[in-house]
Amino acid sequence: MKKIPYGMSNFRAMREEGYLYVDKTMYIEKIENLNSKYLFFIRPRRFGKSLFLSTLENYYDINNEKDFEKLFGDLYIGKKPTKLKNSYMILKLNFSGLDTGNRDRLEISFKQNLIDSISSFLNKYQSIFKDIDEIKEHVKEKSDIKSIINQLIEEVEKVGKKVYLIIDEYDHFANDIIAMGESEFYREIVRASGFVRDFYETLKIGTESVIDRIFITGISPIMLDDLTSGFNIALNVTMDLSLNEMLGFTEEEVVKILEEVGIEEKENLINNLSELYDGYKFNKNARTRVYNPDMVLYFLAQYKNTGGYPEYLIDDNVKTDYGRLNRLTMNEENKVLLERIIKEEGIVAEIVTKFSFDRMYDEEYFVSLLFYMGLLTIERQEKTRLFLKIPNYVIKTIMWEYIETNLKKEYKINLDLNELRKTIEEMAYEGRIKPYIEYISQNVLKVLSNRDIINFDEKYIKVILITYLVNSKAYRPISERETEGGYIDIYLERDIRIPDIKYEWLIELKYVKKSEKGKVDKIKEEGIKQLKRYRESKGLKERKDVKQALIIFIGKDEYQVIEV
Hints:
Strand order of the largest sheet: 2-3-4-1-5
Number of strands: 13
Radius of gyration: 27 Å
Structural class: alpha/beta
Shape: elongated
Largest sheet: 5 strands, parallel
Strand content: 5-15%
Number of helices: 24
């Protein structure tokens, strides 16, 4: 039985210490056969990038030749090794955690990070180099980043070896600077004589001698365009069809994981994992979607420890990553656009593959950034563009929490959570929905309408109703659930964490302007028919204790609740 490697990214430790490893080594062969030696590949945070880099490091490192069979023997690449196995010195850089306080502090931090990484590199290959202490001193004495890299290149040339350069979190400091809105700071470091540009220009020159291969990862292509000719050799393979499943778990892999870690495939477990964490697609022609691997392992680790579903469906580490969302919507245009995406549960757009900071707040750039962050994914081709959707339930909860936070911050909506919880419990255990609708109408919708700052419609009201249900853990709200009878506006399904909830709900929402109040009777008749069709549909007909409610909002301050 394998141990669950939640939070681990050290390939060697996982293989030597009995942890689960999902074999992705066939992609080593695939990336070797691509049309470039210098690859740029991005995925959302905590999506398995660091583990894949560790796999590459262990495969190509000349120091690991004696351990090859132990590490890779039973994996795809162990049975079909390429000619390049164990043929490189590995220089690994990671640009997370740098000091972005100001330009000088960042440059000092960047330089020290580089010196420390080269020092580790020299220690690792001390049997190859002579006088490594002397070399380290030469490196430390260099006044600029170009000279530091050139010193390393010179030393590697002397010993007649080749380097495989791996850069993780290449954009971490740039994303921090952008989130702070420091446009001039950003331009100084990546353009003209900026030290980041110098760094990449020197690497480019290094490829003419000892740097034979490069693999760069991050979460956005933000610096690719701004570096321009400074580093125009990297092939962006982020959306390469053949690499769609290189990171993340396919459903087939998730089923196998359950077996390997000793979890019997209990009823609905795979379905629940799919709803929560699946849905990612990185090429419009990909046939397979992938699960967020970090979230799956988090869930399974909690499940193994407690024998039940975790109390929180997404761990705090991942939520912190998505905290950037608030900073990215500091300008009104992005804020309005994100609210529209949440209302529509997606957007028709084109994905931009190169970013320029100057166009950071253009609509297509912002939408593309949401895609790269994992907050949107490809659903289908929509004429000449793509329809990007919110991938799964967990990401939807992040979006809904964004709405709640924004309402609290901008419009001073602070609800009495005890009173709110009581109304939800009435709905869940006593089958009464009206107290919840009344509470939200009086304490949220009326506040917003009095300020006259939003365009009320059915979709916005739906988002508000769902937003305040999510953290109760009583229900898993499903928007636009498909049935043969049509699409249910809101289906409130029992949350997997509280199975004793008595009543589930089918809710049909309608909105009419005050001037059209005369249409209410006809709308009521149509809504009741819709609810009856949904209730009789496959999958719902057999479920017990499913209540139905038609909610008609008339203008901004009046509503009717009809329970069917």
